[in-house]
Amino acid sequence: MDQTRLITLENVSKEYDGTFVLNDIDLYIRKNEFLTLLGPSGCGKTTTLRIIGGFEYPTTGKVIFDGKDITNDPPYKRRVNTVFQKYALFPHLNVFENIAFGLKIAKKSKEAIAAKVDKTLELLNLRGFDKRAVDSLSGGQQQRVAIARAVVNEPEVLLLDEPLAALDLKLRKDMQLELKRMQQALGITFIFVTHDQEEALTMSDTVVVMKSGYIQQIGTPKHIYDEPQNAYVANFIGESNIIRGVMVKDELVHFCGADFNCVDFGFKKNEAVDVLIRPEDVYIVGTDIGQLIGTVRSVLFKGVHYEMIIQAGGFDWKVHSTTMAPVGSRAGLSVVPFNIHVMHVEDETVITQEDRT
Amino acid sequence: MSSLNMPQWGVWLFALGLGGAIIFLGMSIRRHHGVHRSLFSWPYSLWIAVFTVVPLFLVAFYAFTDKAGQLTLENFANFWDSNREMKQQLIAMGYDPIVMGMGERGTVNVDTLVYSLWMALMCTGICFVIGYPAALFISEREFKLGPTLIVLFIIPMWMNFLLRTVAWMTLLEDNGLINTLLQRMGLGRVRLMYNSQAVLLGMVYNYLPFMVFPVYNALSRQDYKLSEAAMDLGADKWRTFSRVTFPLSLPGIVSGITMVFMPSVTTFFIPRALGGGNTEMFGDLIERTFLTADNWNVGSALSLIMMLLILLSMGLLRKVDPEGEGGSLL
After folding, report:
1. Residue B144 in contact with partner chain A when CB distance is under 8 A
2. Average pLDDT of the residues in A188-199
3. Neighbour tally for B237: CB within 10 Å
4. Partner of A333 for a Cys bridge, out of A182, A292, B39, B309, CB 3.0 to 4.6 A?
5. Chain B residues within 8 A of A90 when measuring between CB atoms
């Protein structure tokens, strides 16, 4: 990937009526990167996006775009365009006029506008909709118009504020793929805001996990999933078993009344830690060779696998497995060292782990 | 209760209403499942029928008949030529109206109508020019005092409009508050009242809230994300206003114009109070024709002409904004 830093946020904080919704955010976005701000509502992801878009000004800190300080520039002076959460299409204009809005403001010629809008309609499968009133369109179509209205201006950066949240599941999946395809085809930097972890993992080059105005972790989807910084990130991304344990020494961790070999090191001796084991990494084995022995509490058939709750070592283990153990039966559990991930106990204000490709 | 001093028919009406309400209530309680919803609209429908529809027909009836109840268009001819009746009397008495210097058409009525329309247009225009920016300012999202200001706009309306107009008299009179102040400051007295400007001032003062409220409503209901979207697409503040905010407030403007223009054309009392009788408007003319000249037929004709004009202007507004609240009156 192009390593040029297109946008940089330096120590950005935002305060509303005495409370900080963003705390010292440091973040850079590279050219052509698909970067996702991920977190629950109120984590500051939308505020971050609005600061980049120019709709909010940071209380402290700077926004650098292409080497230039744009912290106090109004939105209309920025080379970014936004796809708003509820689309914010102009109800008094039809589809064509909505899409042409930015081009008309930029005083492009009539022919150029028509040509560009046509091309964009084509790109977003909106052919034949140009004369329609926007409120006569379905949610998915409105969504496309909102995207078309932004990308037709050929911005360097496209900001997307939960653009898929209002769509139903099937449509959302299609749009995910389509957005990704479009981002690669157009060569535009995407900054995407969502609370949907699956969406973040599928589409992004880089995921930024946020919580209460702090960045928790920045990394590739795989990195965030495999090596979450803390229990919060682990819980937020995918399903997980998180067990409080003690790091006995390098590569040996103690939890659920047993010692486990692992691959983590660099912790203090006997430091209290959070241990993460993904449900699909817990193997069901015979009671004779299991590292832990437990009782099956519940079984749900999920199609691809069984989802079981197995009580072992004083903990209810979430287990995803293609082999099923019946409810009430005894089962042995086994985890390979590579699948045990040891984390420092969560401290939301100390975050530095960053690993991008 | 003798101190209430209600007129006889008032007591009857009250009793009728109360009785109706009791019967109505009893019926709905007794069989609240079987009650048709349309039943609830009866009291109001009855009210409208008795006090609006019937009088309207009466107005039409009077307008097209003479004192003897014969069908005639004379009342409208009298509107066109206010000297017509006098001329006919002169002829009947054997005089020649032209020799008597009465040959010309009497233009008082038509002039008054034109003047009223002109004043109403001016009033609506001024209310828009003052009211729109005010509403825009109050509806600003960052402006926290907005609701308070709206209440301040409403408070004067708790007072009767006659009282409000009389209050202006005490301010503008030759010996009024403003002139007293001016004299104290050594600037001398100025004639502030008894002219069209004073009447216009009174009208604007009374009708301004009717412009501000609908426009404020339309503006504050607008999704702020729409102006953000416009700015995002490169529109500066002015173009965001002219291309998004303003067009989307059109329904509010239309209903504001309607709500100011209609009462403006029919304004009465204000011209008499602040214009000192020099600037009669159509509303006063109608009132005078009914009460002073005691001519119900011509008065009804005048009323009918005014109603037609109002309907016409509403129709025009409807052309501008088909979904607007004002136009839907038709």
Report:
1. no
2. 92
3. 13
4. A292
5. 226, 229-230, 244, 248
Is B328 within a domain?
Answer: no
> Beta strands of B132-281 (E only): which ranges?
none
Is A222 in contact with A200 (CB distance < 8 Å)? no
Residue B199: is its pLDDT beyond 80?
A: yes
Cβ atoms of A208 and A9 within 8 Å: the answer is: no
**Residue B229 with chain A: CB contacts under 8 Å:** 82, 84, 88-90, 149
Residue A90's DSSP bridge partners are none
| Set of chain A residues whose Cβ sits within 8 Å of the Cβ of B247 | 92
Instruction: Report the CATH number at residue A310.
Output: 2.40.50
Domain range enclosing A308: 283-334
ipTM of the complex: 0.82
The Cα A6–Cα A12 span in angstroms is: 16
User: How many domains does chain A contain in total?
Assistant: 2
Is A200 inside any structural domain? yes
Residue at which a domain ends, from B66, B92, B118: B92
Residues 6+ apart with CB under 8 A from A142: A87, A89, A134
How large is the average pLDDT for residues B97-116?
A: 83
Q: How many domains does chain B have?
A: 2
Select from A103, A204, A112, A215 the least CA-distant residue to A155. A103
One domain for residues B164 and B40: no
Tell me whether residues B234 and A86 touch, CB distance under 8 A.
no
End-to-end distance of chain A based on CA atoms, in angstroms?
A: 8
Tokens of A5: 């830093």
Task: Provide the domain limits for residue B159.
Answer: 108-320
Tracing tokens 């153990």 back to the chain, one arrives at: A325
For the stretch B212-260, pLDDT in tens is: 999 999 999 899 999 999 999 999 999 999 999 999 999 899 999 989 9
Whether residue B234 and residue A55 make contact (CB cut-off 8 A), yes or no, is no
Say how far apart CA B32 and CA B54 lie, in whole Å: 32
Q: Indicate the angle between helix axes A110-123 and A95-105, nearest 10 degrees.
A: 130
Decide which of A178, A211, A226 is a domain's last residue.
Answer: A226
Out of A74, A91, A105, the one facing B233 most closely (by C-beta) is: A105
Q: Does B142 touch chain A (CB under 8 A)?
A: no
| C-alpha atoms less than 13 angstroms from C-alpha of B94 in its C-beta half-sphere | 0
Task: Compute the nearest-CA separation of B251 from chain A (Å).
Answer: 11
The model's pTM is 0.78
Mention every residue, 6+ apart, whose C-beta is less than 8 A from residue B259: B207, B210, B211, B214, B326
**Within this chain, do residues B198 and B266 fall inside the same structural domain, yes or no?**
yes
Residues above pLDDT 90, as percent of chain A? 68
- C-alpha to C-alpha distance for B285 and B301, rounded to whole angstroms: 12
**pLDDT value for B38:** 67
Do B295 and B172 belong to one domain?
A: yes
Do residues B81 and B142 both lie within one domain? no
Are the beta carbons of A326 and A299 closer than 8 angstroms? yes
* Per-residue pLDDT, B327: 40
- The answer on B195 and B272 residing in a single domain is yes
Please tell me whether residues B137 and B76 are part of one structural domain: no
**How far apart are the C-alpha atoms of A94 and A84, rounded to whole Å?**
18
Question: Are B90 and B97 contacting, i.e. CB atoms less than 8 angstroms apart?
Answer: yes
